[in-house]
Amino acid sequence: MTHNPDDRQIAIVLGAAVWPGGEPSPSLRRRAEHAAKLWQDGMVSAIIGSGGVGKHPPSEAQVIADICRAKGVPEACILQEDKATTTEENLRFSARLLAEHGAVSAVLVTDAYHAPRALLVARRLGMKATASCPKMTGTTWRRVIKAWMREIPALIWYVLHGKGRP
């Protein structure tokens, strides 16, 4: 598939931990590499790396951009939102970049356990979005189960507290 600038569908890679020395966590690497593949396959016209500096620098957005660049995505197709520290901020701040670039929809790139909450927030923000989730490689089943167990109460909290509403 070729890259059609009229498609205006942009991937938003939701940040995850950066480890000491600027190493991406397996989750962050999976997400960024998946977004690069979406671009390579012509499914998105650009990629927004979203996420600020967490426990270790650089920003999650910078690490995402570096991975995408290494996978062949041109600089002109990589955008960075480097302030967000929550899922809501990832989407709220990235929505501005979508609008600035005339995007009609977004593909949220995150792990499957995180996608329901991310889509909830996106819809509440009025964003036309779908999710595309990489395979859970580079992590143990124990960590995957732990992530799902953490995500269930987070989703309930977002629902009850109206996260993502204007």
Contiguous low-pLDDT stretches (5 residues minimum) are 1-6
Number of strands: 7
Helical run tally: 5
Backbone structural class = alpha/beta
CATH superfamily descriptor: HUPs
CATH architectural name: 3-Layer(aba) Sandwich
Keyword list:
Rossmann fold; 5 helices; 17% strand; 7 strands; alpha/beta; 166 residues
Would you mind describing this structure in some detail?
This protein is of the alpha/beta class and 166 residues long. The protein has one domain (9-161): 3-Layer(aba) Sandwich (Rossmann fold), CATH 3.40.50.620. It is 43% helix and 17% strand. It contains 5 helices and 7 strands; from the N terminus they run βββαβαβαβαβα. It has helices at residues 26-40, 60-70, 87-100, 115-124, 141-161, and strands at residues 9-14, 18-19, 23-24, 46-50, 78-81, 105-109, 129-132. It has a 5-stranded parallel beta sheet with strand order 5-4-1-6-7, with helices on both faces. It has a two-stranded antiparallel sheet with strand order 2-3. Strand 2 (18-19) and strand 3 (23-24) form a beta hairpin. Helix 1 packs across helix 2 (60-70), helix 3 packs across helix 4 and helix 4 runs parallel beside helix 5 (141-161). The longest helix is centred in the last third of the chain and has 21 residues, at 141-161. The termini are far apart.
